[in-house]
Amino acid sequence: MISEVIEKAAAAKKTAMALSVMDTKAKNAALLAVASSLLSSSKDLLEANKKDIEAAKSKGLSKALIDRLSLSEARIKDMAEGLKKVAGLKDPVGEVICKWKRPNGLRIKKVRVPLGVIAIIYEARPNVTVDAAALCLKSGNCVVLRGGSDAVNSNIFLADLISKAASSCGIPEGAVSLINSTDRKAVEDLLSLRQYIDCAIPRGGAGLIDMVVEKSRVPVIETGVGNCHAYVEASADQKMAQEVVFNAKVQRPSVCNAIETLLVDEKIAAGFLPSMIKHLKSAGVRIKGCSKTRRIDPSLEEASEEDWKTEYLDLILAVRIVTGIDEAIEHITKYGSGHSETIITGDRKKAGLFTSKLDSAAVYVNASTRFTDGGEFGFGAEIGISTQKLHARGPMGLSELTSYKYVIEGSGQIRK
Amino acid sequence: MISEVIEKAAAAKKTAMALSVMDTKAKNAALLAVASSLLSSSKDLLEANKKDIEAAKSKGLSKALIDRLSLSEARIKDMAEGLKKVAGLKDPVGEVICKWKRPNGLRIKKVRVPLGVIAIIYEARPNVTVDAAALCLKSGNCVVLRGGSDAVNSNIFLADLISKAASSCGIPEGAVSLINSTDRKAVEDLLSLRQYIDCAIPRGGAGLIDMVVEKSRVPVIETGVGNCHAYVEASADQKMAQEVVFNAKVQRPSVCNAIETLLVDEKIAAGFLPSMIKHLKSAGVRIKGCSKTRRIDPSLEEASEEDWKTEYLDLILAVRIVTGIDEAIEHITKYGSGHSETIITGDRKKAGLFTSKLDSAAVYVNASTRFTDGGEFGFGAEIGISTQKLHARGPMGLSELTSYKYVIEGSGQIRK
Fold first, then answer.
1. Are A363 and B113 inside 8 Å of each other by CB?
2. Record: contact B394-A405, CB cut-off 8 A
3. CA-based nearest residue in chain A for residue B246
4. Which of A17, A406, A415 sits opposite B361 (nearest CB)?
5. A20, A404, A415 ranked by CB distance to B247: nearest
6. Which chain B residues are closer than 8 Å to A368 by Cβ?
């Protein structure tokens, strides 16, 4: 197994230079070829996927997991559409980020280049295989994929299809590969190969991310853990606050940019919370309140210290009444994961304090946290949402999959 | 000891928010206060430094190491000048990198923010204590310093002086601290504190850097290993080539941006090399040649496979004759460390191949590699030269010590 991992990682590294200087047209043609191959092979793909689903069922996996794993004609069509969309995006490679001339005549250009070889470690969603390969390919990066073992048949089929379609358009061998081994050790091996892998991106739950950070010897971009907050400040337009909080919790509770805790200023809590709670409960939200909140609504469960730290990813919301913006900022700083926070306020000064003091990837004023997303930001696509501060933060589009180099032209300059 | 490390790292984290929103004027005043305190305390500092020098002598450390360790009135003055220079640089924090408006009316701003808490792990140069603290402070970052044990008396004195002078200007306690413990384990403890440290930057030799990369659980920016190359292409202006190669090797051989290997096109080797070798030898350079080079000059030592991989940091140069640009690129890709390379050529197409295909932080055409430096690039100062591709590459100035966050202003937008 170590040999499969080393072989594929080394092949990717060897191919990286050729892919890094690949023409945009060739990369786009490859993406479109993968899309059409996906559509024309849908029957065989569904066959491979069926094996995974049956194995998952016989292992007694949850309905939710089996749903994530399952492909359908509609989902395959979505994957193909996604590929076409990526083909339509601007190629980031070669962009001159800035340039200047030094007094000694040296002309310095900062030029965008691919990262090189990216390892993507993910769980059992076969669509990630296609998404991640497409974004890496378009940004000139070789990719070594390692998906969850429950999707292994689907993933092997998909990776093979992608490689073949891409190479028919001139993309070099080894640019897209999948570690077939489902041994957990294969991930560790992959993450130890500093000589071949430039960057690892885990996509999945907190357990997967922690494992990758713990094991990796290659630089990691952490993604996706979101303990997000909404703070309804005393001067808020309360109707707007109701709508934003409801949207941020209810519209899609299973994703990282949904809120987990609502903070409400004590000056308006008694007026605001009863109807807010009623509205949330009508959508099936289970609410846990701090002691002050439970004085307003004694029917609520009590929120514990643990609740403030929890990313429920579910229709559950913790509610705390705070004395003002300082306590709100303190709470978020203490318990948040640095993903997305929003303040609902009519006070520009308070908004400024909130956005400047909070150390999160995305800080909103009077809008739902659900907009922290590459598509919603206008990036066209995303590989994940970074919650670390090094390299990339927040939604990561194609540009975030690049590095840069300096190209310096002179006429014989030497250093004195 | 673990308690010292945790205590100082936690204090830095706690202080990070206050420092991140600190006024530029206050930060500059603090830098100037440190500079004047350095000058007025030079006698006591030299006293502390003397203890380190005596200990180093009794341990039998090399002359070069003792020189790096030693302070003098002149070196203290240089440190003070460095602080004044950093005070004069533009504050990167708060810069709006870009902004745009979405069709739904959301206004998105990408704003530069400090990284947070930076750990700097370095060797026995006391001036790094001052440099690193100054750059971190100016860029709004708290810093936890861990210098080499041989400089511990100097470093404790300096860190204390910096803290006091800075806090007299309103810089919060804990913003600059030094791990006093000289136990190696303290470094490992520091590098395990993901909850407090946002980024670690090693400054020193390959051994130190490898140790930090190996041990760290916090994101690392690798700096400084430079196996740099010059390639004299067939169409080169040979006089220019002589000057550039000589400068890149001889002007300061102990630094990472000096060249270690010279590649020469076989078409011009017989004409070019004899005078080049003579010129280099006149400056005391020891030359190791490939078999083709030794056919031109049989007096040379033979270069081994190991030589192509070696960063001599000394007046030693490996020379190889190549069949053309493809072999030159292949050699550099195989053996280089991705730092700095230069081609001397009169052929624009060859120059383009060299700069686009080579995956190094800085790629030069007709100039010395010695310009890979924050000062020479016009950044005003540098914390190091990154040889990794994530986050920052090449010379790292103040901007490279920052991250960004998205600040999004709306009017009640919710996601459909």
1. no
2. yes
3. A414
4. A406
5. A415
6. 413-415
Which residue from A356, A366, A393 is facing B403, i.e. has the nearest CB? A393
- Chain A residue numbers with beta carbons less than 8 Å from the beta carbon of B333 are 17
Q: Mind telling me how many Å the CA of A14 is from chain B's nearest CA?
A: 10
- For residue B413, give the amino acid letter: Q
**Are B261 and B156 members of one domain?**
no
Same-domain check for residues B207 and B330: no
CATH code (residue A254):
3.40.309.10
Q: Is A382 inside a domain boundary? A: no
Residues of B in contact with A217 (CB under 8 A): 213-214
Digitized pLDDT (tens) for each residue of chain B, 416 residues in all: 569 999 999 999 999 999 999 999 999 999 999 999 999 999 999 999 999 999 999 999 998 889 989 999 999 999 999 999 999 999 999 999 999 999 999 999 999 999 999 999 999 889 999 999 999 999 999 999 999 999 999 999 999 999 999 999 999 999 999 999 999 899 999 999 999 999 999 998 888 998 998 899 999 998 878 999 999 999 999 999 999 999 999 999 988 999 999 999 999 999 999 999 999 999 999 999 999 999 999 999 999 999 999 999 999 999 999 999 999 999 999 999 999 999 999 999 999 999 999 999 999 999 999 999 999 999 988 999 998 899 999 999 999 999 999 999 999 999 99
Q: Do B370 and A414 touch (CB under 8 A)?
A: yes
End-to-end CA distance of chain A: 53
The CATH number for B66's domain is 3.40.605.10
- In order of A75, A164, A179, A218, A223, the CA distances from A48 in angstroms are 15, 17, 17, 32, 29
Min Cα–Cα distance to chain A from B382, Å: 16
Q: Tell me what ipTM this predicted complex has.
A: 0.94
- Give the predicted TM-score (pTM) of the model: 0.93
Residues facing A343 on adjacent strands: A231, A365
**Dist CA A184 CA A190 (whole Å):** 10
Asked if A414 and B361 come within 8 Å (Cβ–Cβ), the reply is no
Is residue B137 domain-resident?
yes
